[in-house]
Design goal:
With 140 residues, the chain is α/β, with parallel strands linked by helices. It is built from 2 helices and 9 strands. Strand 5 and strand 6 form a beta hairpin. The chain is globular, with a radius of gyration of 18 Å.
């Protein structure tokens, strides 16, 4: 039987930039991302179809194009780490601590201009639509 874990969110945790990059890596640990991964505005693209600025970068020699996607209103994302594992390990009783917060995700494609139909923008749109359909969205 598994039990729900808990998430500890302290006041004043810092904001970070989050990137969803279409690649796989087995490295697990800190990296100086801001020293090596420096996106710029893509001069060959005016804007994505939904009006977002198109960004240009590369990873392991491959061109990436992306756009910054805000999370739905009322949502926040957290970078987390385990505080202590419960007796059932990762499936139960684990206490997690939020170490950083984010409100936007930069979603990247391999050398293809970002589109509203891409996975992450569609997921954000669906979350907003589901909130309206199920009446969980606050009245404006």
């Amino acid at each position: 039987m598994s039990t729900a874990g808990s998430l500890l969110v302290r006041e004043g945790i810092g904001e970070v930039k989050v990137h969803n990059i279409p690649t796989k890596t087995t490295f697990c640990g800190p990296a100086e991302v801001q020293s090596y991964f420096q996106p710029t505005q893509d001069p060959s693209c005016k804007a994505s179809p939904d009006g977002k600025e198109v960004l240009l970068s590369s990873f392991r020699g491959r061109t990436l194009r992306g756009a910054e996607i805000p999370l739905p209103e009322g949502y926040s994302g957290y970078a987390i780490r385990p505080v202590c594992a419960g007796p059932e390990g990762l499936d139960g009783g684990e206490e997690l601590e939020a170490v950083h917060r984010f409100t936007h995700v930069t979603a990247w494609n391999h050398d293809v201009k970002p589109a509203a139909s891409d996975y992450f923008p569609a997921l954000v749109d669906w979350s907003s639509l589901a909130a309206v359909l199920h009446g969980t969205r606050p009245e404006a």
